[in-house]
Amino acid sequence: MPKQELIAGLDIGSNQVCCVAGARDEDARLVKILGCACVPCSDGIKAGAVINIQEAAMAMARAFEETEKAAGSHIGNVIVAIRGSFIEAKNSKGVANITHSNREITEETVVNALDSARKMIKLDPEHEILQIIPREFILNQQRGIQNPIGMEGTFIEVDVHALVAVSSNIGNIIKAMNSVDISCDEKVYGYLAASDILVTKEEKELGCLVVDLGGLTTGLVHYADGIIRHTGEAQVGADYITRDIMHKLRASFSVSKEVKEMYGAAFAHPNLKNSEFEYRAADGRSVKKYERKNLVEIIQPRVEQMLFVIEDMMKKSSYGSQFLSGGIILTGGGCQLEGMTEAFEKYFGCSVRIGVPNSEKVVGPHEIVLNPVYTTAIGAVASTMGSTYSVYSPKSSGNGFFSKVSKWFEETF
């Protein structure tokens, strides 16, 4: 019996490439994760953007090869998860008349409304639409409709959230992939792909904030009243903590990262046990000693800065105060720092949890599924099961806009 071709999620991170492979289980309507790999690439990728095509391509090839080996089968399709400061969010609205004699809304009606919203987004030649996400449909001024197909009316409006990217940045990612014979079958916005598998329907209704703590950037996805209200990215991340340690301890970046992960904490909480540890200095030979409480004093100001920047971004959003009821969901490698959850709880005064992929959407080995480093790549794989976030991706190699909308409604509802 031939082995099943797998779907891969390729996450272009702050300074690394993570790949996860899985297979669709059509009966259970979920994906089974089978293998993964994460390859550092600080010389080829920075904050989600390619800065050296050859280095980035080598990291992609290695991650891809190691993932196939771990999964034990060939990868047939690749969904690439993209994020970075070259992506910005724009909201738009579209309208479509219902021309059928029975006034029934069809898939074609929805396509026309979404296409109308797309045309309202002003683009220059240097930008392209990465994704368009319908937030709600309005039928004859009745709001809050998620699936209008089959309903009756005279005209329909749609409110969309669009992600617009710099074309050259997207092009460089695809060029790096193509140079090592990795095809891009679909592109998704990484922060949305991750949040889609982490947040419950109830949290979306109450209003919640997903915070993806990466190496150089932090992504925000805000839900309120069941729909996406805001997406954004802050230029702060866990690597800045590592750099602070590196300069203070005069150690290499890799040693400082290890020190942070083994002995670091987000703040000096009462239960923090002080101890002395050893580390290797920048010369690679001499061994030095340092106290844990002093290490935390290096880390805490940077964590406080990250919290302030996140709060400031949310204050600028028109729905910024509405995320407290459903709390904050943390993901990304930076959330693994000891005390990070408690630091968010203390600062924002709401419930905070580490995001865990929804077991109704994703299953697999705990060392992969429960590792926040792989959440975005897992979300990219899971998006093939009919996520809202793959409704419209203009330059994908799929079968076109109409088929994507049809598939989305069929699988989501």
Detailed description of the structure:
The structure is a single chain. Helix content is 34%, strand content 30%. The protein is α/β, with parallel strands linked by helices. A six-stranded mixed β-sheet has the order 11-6-1-2-3-19. Helix 2 packs across helix 12, helix 6 packs antiparallel against helix 8 and helix 8 crosses helix 9.
Question: Keywords for this structure?
Answer:
single chain; 413 residues; alpha/beta; six-stranded mixed β-sheet; five-stranded mixed β-sheet; 19 strands; 34% helix; 30% strand
Count of helical segments?
A: 12
Radius of gyration, rounded? Answer: 22 Å
Percent range of helical residues: 25-40%
Structural category is alpha/beta
Strand order of the largest sheet: 11-6-1-2-3-19
Largest sheet: 6 strands, mixed
**Proportion of strand residues:** 25-35%
Distance between the termini: 33 Å
Low-confidence blocks of residues: 387-403
General form: globular
**DSSP summary, beta strand count:** 19
> Mean pLDDT, rounded to whole units?
89
Element layout with pairings:
Elements: E1 6-12, E2 16-25, E3 30-40, E4 45-46, E5 49-50, H1 53-71, E6 75-82, E7 87-97, H2 107-119, E8 127-139, E9 142-145, E10 155-166, H3 167-179, E11 186-189, H4 190-198, H5 201-206, E12 208-213, E13 218-224, E14 227-234, H6 238-249, H7 253-263, E15 276-280, E16 287-291, H8 292-315, E17 328-331, H9 340-348, E18 352-354, E19 362-363, H10 366-369, H11 375-382, H12 401-412
Helix pairs in contact: 1-3, 2-12, 4-11, 6-7, 6-8, 8-9
